[in-house]
Amino acid sequence: MPSPAKLTDLLTPHGQHHAVKFWDSLTAADQGRLAHELEAIDYDELAALYAGDVDQPDWHELARRAEPPVAMRLADRRSGQGGGLGVTPSDAKQLGKAALDAGKVGVLLVAGGQGSRLGFEKPKGMYPIGPVSDATLFQIHLEKAVALAKRHATHPGKGGVPVYLMTSPVTHDDTVEFLAEHKNFGLADDDLFIFCQGTMPAVDMATGKLLLADKGKLFLSPDGHGGTIAALASFKKNGEGAIDHMRRRGVENLFYLQVDNPLVPIGDAELLGYHLGTKSELTSVAVAKQEPKDKLGNFVMVDGKLCVIEYSDFPDDVAEVTDADGGLKYWAGSIAVHVFGVAFLERMLALKDALPFHVAKKKVPHLNESGELVEPTENNALKFERFIFDLLPQAERPIVVEYGEEEIFAPLKNAPGAPKDTPEYVQRFLTNQHRGWLEAAGAKVSSDAVVEISPLWALDAEGTAERVSEKPLAIEKDTYLRD
To answer: If pLDDT is split at 50, 70 and 90, which confidence band does 233 have?
Structure first.
């Protein structure tokens, strides 16, 4: 552990020596933790971020010269046409299935958030969301990976679809313990690689000084889902990073999603096929915005590059522009579902500033100079985070594929009583999806029955049709279908 004098020498040139003001009152363990946090900071970068010297795009100006993205629209998918990509849905499915059969696909599941907005002070992935079963978000996602591997197992008992699950410092230990307790919901140990993202310190908005959460701890927050890229290499498990694991397993493409959205068809062969058929380095799913001001990032082309402009940075008059058919010109809403080429991610790892930091003003509790806790009522601090979609302009041949909201997007974000994205909202989407699969397959489902399908019983509509053809179903009451 470094001496107080060494830490003072590190901090003083940057005006941050106040961070060790309470050093002598700390236990040895707390001193060690604080020293580790302080030594991990790039102080020149932090000063540049505070001073605004790091390039921040003029999003309003970019939005005014943006064009809609190169995309496969939902209507073309449903009609079986090649659309804007020149790859038909049937061809895409064959390409995707071949990649899955060959074991070249992994899943990147981002699970760094807690369920605080839900009144659930645990990792959000542990939230029970199954409409009948109370299955957690983790269970639903990981069982999809198990079912996907079973469907595409060319050598029974071997291989699988590896899941790379990213936590944050506040969720990591609870997540590891929970998944171990539940035996990874059926995933083999080598099919689940849990790694932790990095953090960034918050600074005082008026002075740029580091904020202390307590006398021996900085106020740190996760560095955003864009921190995934660095963490894939930096976090080691038995000396092996996630990227190393991918190389060993022969994983060439990653299906990316966030843990709060249980509707995502993990490893969807059609989506993978568009990615492969166009030789894209980064493929993104969009849903069509219903209103100009929908709270979704906007996929747009600027100077021939695909990028996302957040709804808060998109001028109202631009968002309201319509096309020749009367629909929204800027229709493509981002839902944080992507396919990445692993080689592309490795290339991005070699670029220190591949992802810019975004600056947000927040209310951050902290200790004052007397060591007393201050609970601000107004924004007092700056937080810095990176967003995964900022990789888009760096990618070669990036594409967008439109899906219907009802088939892919029902994120759990809000407590009961909010207009949408509540537990009840998500459960309704899950039930409607599963009811639709069953009825399309010829099953009879009572109008007042709540039905839920475990991925282990059927992964999707195709799997449901196979099960119903084997044994016709008539469901009269609330039912959870699971092997």
So the answer is: confident
- Give the other-Cβ count within 10 Å of 154's Cβ: 10
With vertex at residue 436, the alpha carbon angle to CA 434 and CA 438, rounded to the nearest 5 degrees, is 70
Strands (E), 342-377: 358-362, 366-367, 373-374
Which residue ranges make up each domain of the chain? 1-40, 56-412, 414-483
Identify the pLDDT of residue 386.
82
* pTM for the predicted model, two decimal places: 0.91
Taking each helix axis as running N to C, give the angle between helix 242-249 and helix 342-349, from 0 to 180 degrees, rounded to the nearest 10.
150
Between residues 3 and 429, which one has the greater pLDDT? Answer: 429
Fold of 56-412: Spore Coat Polysaccharide Biosynthesis Protein SpsA; Chain A (3.90.550)
**What per-residue confidence (pLDDT) applies to 156?**
52
φ and ψ at residue 161, rounded to 5 degrees: -110, 100
**Can you point out the beta strands (E) in 368-419?**
373-374, 381-385, 399-402
Strand partners, 163: 107, 192
Q: How many other CB atoms sit within 10 Å of the CB of residue 467?
A: 18
Cα(88)–Cα(386) distance, integer angstroms: 34
Instruction: Could you list the beta-strand ranges (E) of 303-343.
Output: 305-309, 332-341
Q: Residue 399 phi/psi, 5° resolution?
A: -135, 165
Average pLDDT over residues 371-377: 94
Query: In one letter, which amino acid is 300?
Result: V
Are 366 and 381 in contact by the 8 Å Cβ rule? The answer is yes
Q: How confident is the model at residue 229 (pLDDT cuts 50, 70, 90)?
A: confident
**Does pLDDT of 324 surpass 90?**
yes
